[in-house]
Amino acid sequence: MAKLMPGRVRNEGIELFEKDLITIHQVSETQLDTTVDQHHLIYALNDSEITCDCDYFVQKGYCPHLAAVEYYLKNDKEGQRLLAELEEEQESSQGQDRGHSFGGLFLEGLSLNEDDTVRYSLMVEGEESTFGSEIWWSIRLRRLPDERSYVIRDIPAFLKLVEAEGYYQIGKNYYEPLSLIQFDQASQAFLDFLGRMIPDEAKTNLDFILPNNARHLCLPYGFFEEGLRRMQDLDGFRFEWEGTEYRQLLVEDLTADAQLFSFDICVEPKMIELTVAEKNSQAFFNNRILFYQGVFYRLNRKQQKLLVGLRSLPIGSDLNKHVSFNLDEQAILAASLFDFRTMGPVKAPKAFNIKDFTPRFRFDLKGDSEIILTLAFDFDGFLVHDRQELSHLGFTSNYRHEQAVFRLMSKHGFIPDFQSSKRLSSSQELYDFFTNTLSDFENAGTVLIGQELRDLRVEQSPQVQVERQGNLLDISFDFSSLDDEDVDHALAALMESSPYFINRSGQLIVFDEATHRISESLKTLRARYSGKGHLELNQLTAYQLMDAL
After folding, report:
1. Which residue in 523, 509, 518, 521 sits closest to 479, CA to CA?
2. What's the rounded Cα separation, in Å, for the pair 423 and 413?
3. Most confident of 254-268, 458-472, 524-538
4. By three-state DSSP, how is residue 153 classified?
5. What's the Cα-to-Cα distance from 481 to each of 335, 453, 459, rounded to whole Å?
6. CB burial class (10 A; 0-12, 13-18, 19+) of residue 396?
7. Higher per-residue pLDDT: 189 or 332
8. What is the dihedral of CA 485, 487, 491, 493, to 10 degrees?
9. Per-state percent for the chain, helix, strand, coil, to nearest 5
10. pLDDT tens across 389-440, in order?
11. Least packed by Cβ within 10 Å: which of 143, 148, 150, 274?
């Protein structure tokens, strides 16, 4: 107890000892019955058994009279003898309680505190870091019901101590065991969060999470929102930034309603000028978060890139940022307004109002192998068929959508224009056109296919018949629309696991999925082609074929 007393109190106790104002009335096995300067004091090695009838002890839990007795026990020969007797008796008593067995000591070490009386709570204070680009949080411990709180100066050591239910020095006056269940619920949840967030310090450099020699806490981006929520649930929360104090903070997505940015477009006779106004917000986590007046705004990846670009612009004399564009760049600028509107309100002439369209693709066959593509942009019934019409619209077309359509055309071998063509040089290209190219264009807009081109593709689903011929099974495929020579080509393609073949008329014959699965099974079972659409198979593999059919 003595080391928990202020030096002033200890000095007063020494004066009482030197004045010989200590009287020992009775010595029991665990206690000393004393009088110190006319005050009755019971001393024991167990702090909970110490009492003194003075008002100072009632208020503080210690007093000069207790300090006098402790000084007597440590410095007077008779006092040292009495202290030794008390310590010997205490050790003997503890040995009896534990049964002097290793098993008893082992079980005692496994036990946890079960007293869940709430004695402690945590508080958090946030401030700008020394470097100005981070938030450093201080954690404070409060011993209830006292209003005073104490800064935790080594956060990971404190967490380990609470986990082990060890003793902790609280201020100058208290040295007590801390147990998780003796914290209030919000503090328990926050301690659990810290335990999940902070990795093993023996394996990781924790300076980025616990800066300033673990005196502060710096929340990583992945834990920021949960940490902020946990901290605001505590009894005490305070955040100070640039001289303003906040008791509550919000986290939400950045939208134009926040008005952190505003954009104004002015069309001059020879150019277009964009003026950007920005409020004084602070960026965190590599521009993933913006803070302004008590709100942390989340930015998506596109907004992050826009923020970097906007903040790279020079500031004009009016404290705004100005960018000039050529008149023929109106469509590009208008398309960018979609992104600007996610950052803040946009003021622009009506000509910058973007109208979207639905692309219409028509594919026709020219000759034997040339595909003609005709493109039109459908603006709610108003069709644009060429670039000249596109350049004379009374509104601004969606430039980015236009570029996406032209990129799709280039991807599949068409010149990116309203009229284009492509020559197919092989049966594989024809198959890829019907299987992959048309599918991509259908996902992008409306697709129309001319009848001649449509007739070029035929899907076959032949009838399959199985008959027994001696020790063999005879399997025949009935292709009703093919002549004998094409049937041979069809069976050859199936046996090669090809999903298609080109008949003598130049048509693309595509096998349906069921037929393709049967051909795969027959190939695995080593069926032999006997001609005219027939296959032969050993009867021993019949059961396997039945599963395939």
Report:
1. 509
2. 9
3. 254-268
4. coil
5. 53, 19, 11
6. buried
7. 189
8. 70
9. 40, 30, 30
10. 988 887 888 888 999 999 999 999 999 999 999 998 888 888 888 888 999 9
11. 148
